[in-house]
Design a protein that fits this description.
Blueprint: H1 2-19, H2 35-50, E1 62-64, E2 69-71, E3 86-94, E4 97-107, E5 142-150, E6 157-165, H3 167-181, E7 186-191, E8 197-202, E9 212-213, H4 216-227, H5 233-239, H6 242-251, E10 255-262, E11 268-279, E12 284-291, H7 293-348, H8 352-383
Helix pairs in contact: 7-8
């Protein structure tokens, strides 16, 4: 069909381009469906697909039921028509039995109902609270697989679809992303909605809370009571309750607590516990526990080295100040004698040349004495006197 279209319309388009003044090599025109070009396109798409640079997915397109092909948006002629808005009820089964619960869908195309595969709802919409997981009241991730089968004799379409709870898979994927970002003794999944929790990974040697359970607040209280080494136990327990976690994560993307814990070998280690949302809308939290004892110890050593360096610097300053003070006193005493004796000699001297020498000795001595006094003042300032 495309070749018939080319023969009929391809020449017309070229003639239009010529009339518009396009200056091309008209003897080298190509059609996109020519075999060499078609193979080049296929090879290019396959190459980029294998490289992971493009992907193939299901998309909604304009479909020509007569030509049995997709139609470009540019080739579709849109026309506004008066129509009706139909409201359809999708009734829900409970435990394999019909119920009176339903979802209402508004559409102008009720004939497409047989092709519907799934319905998305807002998890915060109170009208659909029953669409959550039945036993735990969790909001869950669901994967829907649909198979459409036409009935041969009537042409009717039958849709067969299956739902799978993939919440664990989604949480695991997100957990792995966060594990890469954080070192850990153990990592834990917490649902703030109902208190369910589960440890997803842990170091064998580390002391951990329960592997899984349905009351995180009670479990963390029991865990800290057993292993925490602190005189503020209740404050630490309150800081790790679900309400406090939720309150702090509303303000900051990362909530951190530190606490000393007694390990199985009796040693006391400092732990950093970090909380961050995995999925804020679903209320799921990623928790990691990291041993920072070595980091804290190293920081303490650095602080001690810094304090020792400061003390040594202060002692050196004190020694310098004492030296300058003693030196100033020791030098100033003979300098006063030199200045005094020079003044006496100047009064007795009758020779102008010698008097000039004595004047220079006196002025130089007075200048040197001023320097000595300045050094003494600096030493007093440094010593705080």
């Amino acid at each position: 069909m495309c070749w018939e279209w080319k023969e009929k319309h391809g020449g017309i388009i070229l003639e239009q381009l010529k009339k518009l003044g396009a200056s091309c090599d008209w003897e080298r025109t190509k059609f996109t469906m020519d075999e060499p070009l078609s193979k080049a396109v296929i090879n290019t798409f396959v190459y980029f697909y294998k490289k992971g640079l493009i992907y193939r997915g299901v998309r909604m397109v304009n479909w020509d039921p007569e030509g049995l092909t997709a139609v470009s948006d540019e080739e579709v002629i849109h026309k506004e028509t008066k129509s009706h808005l139909y409201y359809l009820r999708y009734f829900i089964e409970e435990n394999g039995k019909p119920s009176d619960k339903f979802l209402t869908i508004a559409t102008t195309r009720p004939e497409t109902i047989m092709a519907d595969a799934a319905i998305c709802i807002n998890p915060n919409d109170e009208r659909y609270y029953w669409a959550k997981r039945r036993d735990t009241d969790d909001i869950i991730w669901v994967r829907v697989d649909v198979r459409i089968v036409p009935q041969l004799d009537t042409g009717d379409l039958f849709a067969f679809y299956n739902n799978w709870d993939v919440t664990h898979e989604k949480n695991r994927d997100r957990m792995m992303q966060l594990i890469i970002e954080f070192d850990y003794d153990y990592v834990e999944y917490i649902c703030l909605q109902n208190g369910h929790f589960e440890i997803m990974a842990q170091e064998k040697s580390s002391m951990c809370p329960s592997a899984r359970g349905t009351d995180y607040d009670a479990d963390i209280r029991d865990y800290l009571t057993r292993v925490a080494v602190t005189d503020q136990l209740e404050a630490h327990i309150r800081a790790m309750q679900t309400e406090e976690i939720r309150r702090n994560l509303e303000a900051e993307p990362l909530y951190i607590q530190e606490i000393d814990v007694r390990e199985s070998d009796g040693s006391v280690r400092r732990k950093m516990i970090r909380y961050t949302y995995m999925d804020k809308q679903m209320g799921t939290v990623f928790k990691s526990c990291v041993d920072i004892e070595d980091i804290v110890t190293e920081e303490k050593k650095k602080q001690e080295r810094l304090e020792r360096a400061i003390e040594e610097t202060e002692r050196a300053n004190c020694a310098k100040s004492e030296f300058l003070a003693h030196m100033s006193h020791d030098i100033r005493t003979p300098m006063n004698a030199i200045i005094g004796m020079t003044s006496v000699a100047r009064q007795e001297c009758q020779d102008d040349t010698i008097c000039g020498y004595l004047d220079k000795i006196k002025s130089s001595s007075e200048f040197l004495l001023g320097l000595i006094n300045d050094m003494l003042d600096i030493s007093r300032i440094e010593s705080g006197n």
